[in-house]
UniProtKB/TrEMBL annotation:
One of its GO terms (cellular component) is membrane. Keywords: Membrane, Transmembrane, Transmembrane helix. This is PAP2 superfamily protein. It comes from the Bacteria. SMART domains: DSPc. The chain crosses the membrane at residues 57-81, 93-114, 134-152, 164-182, 188-208, 220-238. PROSITE patterns: TYR_PHOSPHATASE_2. CDD domains: DSP_bac, PAP2_Aur1_like. Pfam families: DSPc, PAP2_3. Residues 352-425 form the Tyrosine specific protein phosphatases domain.
């Protein structure tokens, strides 16, 4: 079995972990217990139960994984390997308790099944639970929220085999809220939604960025916001339309990206991976982007060699790309094997890069070329973002002496490229401010 990754914790990190535990432990018991006691005095508490839930069996032994989350909660503060990871993990758990308690207060629900009498060690564990937990803190299930947040931390520090076993145990914890007759299904669904939202809003790595939008990006934001509003409206008008709130939310977040949050909404790292939370929350948009890429790339070559080992193309699928990839997409998640050298610099779709973006991207390209013979510069289709960067590279290396020559050279090998006046304007500025005149 693979072992945990070597820990880099020092004494100071352990002290910070202990401080977080001493803060959140009492806060959890105080807030959770007080809200539960308060809700028990209300006369407006109802239950939401699906008919099929009556077929869920009561499985007393699952009280063991149910209780195990308390131990895992405490351990999670001592597996973090950096102060940033520990701090953001602590903030996630703090947000989980506060948001769950707010939900219990504003949307009180009651668990409605009568739990059978249980004997032995399992009965003792149920008795201990009943000493503290009344059946009123239901939606969103704090147990589900914590299970998700804790699993994200443990999986980060485990090898493949151990990660598989850990995931299975956390699935058992999630299922135990139903098989111990502690929660109804609505609590599980609402808990999972809140959990993903928290892990997305408080990323362990990276941070949120904002920059002033241009008129062009504001127009794009308005289009996505309009589409989001239509999904929200449809979700409230048609039967079972609540599922449409998912694409509505995803499109709204993309709109915020164009308003100023930029590529940080996708939480994509240098290796080309989007965070799991971003992939779940933005899944409807990401699926749409993938379908669009497949449709529009039907008659476009996957890769077009340009010059001196530099190729231009669309985002690689599972098929083998060249030995190195410079990925300029923000919206696609890398799926090719880790044996390929991959460097990502996310850019928003349909927007030209800035001069600073080009400087940073060409620096990455130079690093890739030092150790790899062939480099694929890619975006979604290999038509705009990547074409702009390759044109800038041609100018920087004096392979051409003007922007029109750069565009003509690229079009000779990939005639489908689409460079708007905004892209061309950036290239002209790059040529003027960054490139030396060739002899």
């Amino acid at each position: 079995m693979a072992q945990c990754k070597p820990s880099q914790n020092n004494g100071s990190l352990w002290k910070h972990g202990l401080c977080w535990l001493l803060l959140l432990g009492p806060l959890f018991f105080l807030s959770y217990g007080q809200v539960n006691q308060f809700t028990a005095t209300r006369d407006d508490v109802e239950s939401i139960v699906f008919g099929w839930e009556h077929a869920i069996p009561f499985m007393p032994w699952t009280i063991v994984p149910y209780w195990s989350i308390d131990l895992l909660y405490g351990l999670s503060f001592f597996i973090c390997t950096s102060k940033q990871e520990l701090t953001r993990h602590g903030c996630r758990l703090l947000a989980a308790s506060l948001i769950a308690c707010i939900g219990f207060l504003f949307f009180p629900l009651r668990f409605s099944f009568i739990r059978p009498e249980t004997q032995g060690i399992f009965g003792w564990l149920f008795h201990q639970l009943e000493q503290f937990d009344l059946p009123y803190n239901q939606a969103p299930s704090l147990h589900i929220i914590l299970a998700w947040l804790l699993w994200l931390r443990f999986r980060q520090h485990l090898g493949r085999e151990a990660r598989f076993l850990c995931g299975g145990w956390f699935l058992l914890i999630a299922a135990s809220v139903l098989t111990t007759w502690q929660h109804h299904f609505i609590d599980v669904i609402s808990g999972f939604i809140v959990a993903v939202a928290i892990s997305y809003a408080i990323p362990i790595k990276g941070q949120w960025h904002w920059k002033r939008p241009s008129p062009h990006t504001l127009r794009l934001a308005a289009k996505y916001a309009t589409a989001s509003a239509l999904f929200f409206l449809a979700g409230g008008l048609i039967p079972y339309g609540s599922i449409l709130l998912w694409p509505a939310t995803a499109l709204l977040i993309v709109s915020l990206g164009y308003v100023g949050l930029g590529t940080s909404i996708f939480q994509k790292n240098d290796a080309g991976h989007l965070s799991l939370s971003a992939r779940l929350l933005l899944w409807p948009y990401l699926i749409g982007a993938r379908i669009s890429r497949k449709w529009f790339s039907r008659h476009i070559p996957a890769v077009s060699p340009i010059l001196d080992g530099i190729s231009l193309g669309g985002f690689p699928g599972k098929s083998s790309p060249p030995s190195a990839v410079l990925d300029l997409t923000a919206e696609f998640h890398r799926k090719v094997p880790s044996t390929f050298r991959w460097s990502a610099y996310p850019l928003m779709d349909l927007t030209p890069p800035t001069l600073q973006d080009i400087d940073a991207i060409l620096c990455k390209l130079s690093q890739l070329r030092l150790t790899n013979g062939t480099v694929l510069v890619c975006c979604a289709l290999g038509l705009s973002r990547s074409a702009t960067v390759v044109a800038a590279w041609l100018l920087a290396k004096n392979h051409v002496s003007s922007v029109p020559q750069a565009i003509a050279l690229i079009k000779h090998h990939r005639p489908q490229i689409v460079l708007t006046p905004a892209h061309i304007d950036v290239l002209e500025k790059y040529k003027e401010t960054r490139c030396q005149t060739s002899a």
